[in-house]
Design a protein that fits this description.
Helices cover about 35% and strands about 15% of the residues. The chain is α/β, with parallel strands linked by helices. It has two domains: about 200 residues, Vaccinia Virus protein VP39 (Rossmann fold, 3-Layer(aba) Sandwich); about 60 residues, rRNA adenine dimethylase, C-terminal domain (Helicase, Ruva Protein, domain 3). The chain has a six-stranded mixed beta sheet with strand order 3-2-4-5-8-6, with helices on both faces. A two-stranded antiparallel sheet has the order 1-7. The relative contact order is 0.12.
């Protein structure tokens, strides 16, 4: 197969700039000493060619059969390297990370000597229409992923990295930064792709903090989503369906709006709510 036709329904914009592909590949730092690297959406293998020179066992997540056949025909991959749809990816827990989690109880930061526990790095020119879903999949498996370098629509990349107080600070900003250090690396012009997208792209790097929030992560997601779903309202109103009855505003934050709250405050708020829920559940029902 000599050519792959980009498919609009898959959001394919194939990377054509070899120098840029090399720059993306070299943005991987190996944080966490992972040995497996998963590329999402390799397409025609422009980035893959450079990843093959890195010291990782490379895996490819691709759903387009034409792209898969192209990669195999051009000896950029073997059939056993293909893992299918990334959104269905379900890696096994890292044995070392499981032991570390039991040892630390997910309450304390891990020192540098113990941070070398990751199984996976993730990289790719991410299809823009599922880029947020990709981020949430990485968050789902944060114990296994040491690092992620991805190409996004520029506005999405900027949103993920934005600090509190910014107009674009939102759900993906808080939840990503609760688990990873997020760094915006560089902007990519439309002409680096075929067909060229109508927007500029941005490359960002996520490095695992190895200190996941010491709270119920599902409750954290619920709190953050509720806060930003009504971002123009004060938190007292936006979180009305999440806050337990009689919740006291000891943090003095409920008069603020969601974008004014830093990541650590969302975690502290979730911890406070979780403590009340645990207490309520421990009290036996009165006859």
């Amino acid at each position: 197969m000599e050519r792959v036709r980009p498919k609009k329904q898959l959001g394919q914009h194939f990377l054509t700039d070899g120098h840029l592909a090399e720059k993306v590949a070299l943005s991987l730092t190996g944080w966490g000493n992972y040995t497996n690297l998963l590329e999402i959406g390799p397409g025609t293998g422009q980035l893959t060619r450079h990843l093959l020179h890195l010291p990782y066992r490379l895996w490819l997540a691709e759903v387009d059969q034409d792209s898969i056949q192209y990669l195999l025909a051009h000896q950029l991959a073997e059939p056993e390297q293909m893992v299918g749809d990334f959104l269905r990816w379900n890696p096994q827990p890292c044995p070392d990370m499981t032991a570390l989690a039991k040892h630390q109880g997910y309450h304390h930061p891990v020192d540098n000597a113990m941070a070398n526990q990751a199984c996976w790095g993730v990289v790719g020119n991410f299809p823009y229409h599922i880029s947020t879903e990709i981020i949430f999949k990485v968050l789902e498996h944060h114990e296994q992923v040491g690092e992620c370098v991805g190409m996004f629509q520029r506005e999405v990349a900027q949103r993920i990295c934005s600090p509190h107080g910014s107009k674009v600070y939102g759900i993906t900003s808080v939840l990503t930064q609760a688990f990873f250090e997020a760094e915006y690396l560089f902007t990519v012009n439309e002409g680096a792709f075929f067909p060229p997208p109508k927007v500029k792209s941005g490359v960002l790097r996520l490095k695992n903090l190895w200190n996941p929030p010491a709270c119920d992560h599902r409750l954290l997601f619920r709190v953050v989503k509720a806060a930003f779903n009504q971002r123009r309202k004060m938190l007292s109103n936006a979180l009305s369906q999440v806050l337990p009855d009689g919740y006291e505003d000891r943090m003095k934050i409920l008069h603020l709006r969601a974008e004014q709250l830093p990541v650590h405050a969302f975690i502290e708020l979730t911890q406070a709510i979780q403590e009340i829920i645990l207490i309520e559940n421990s009290i036996p029902n009165q006859p």
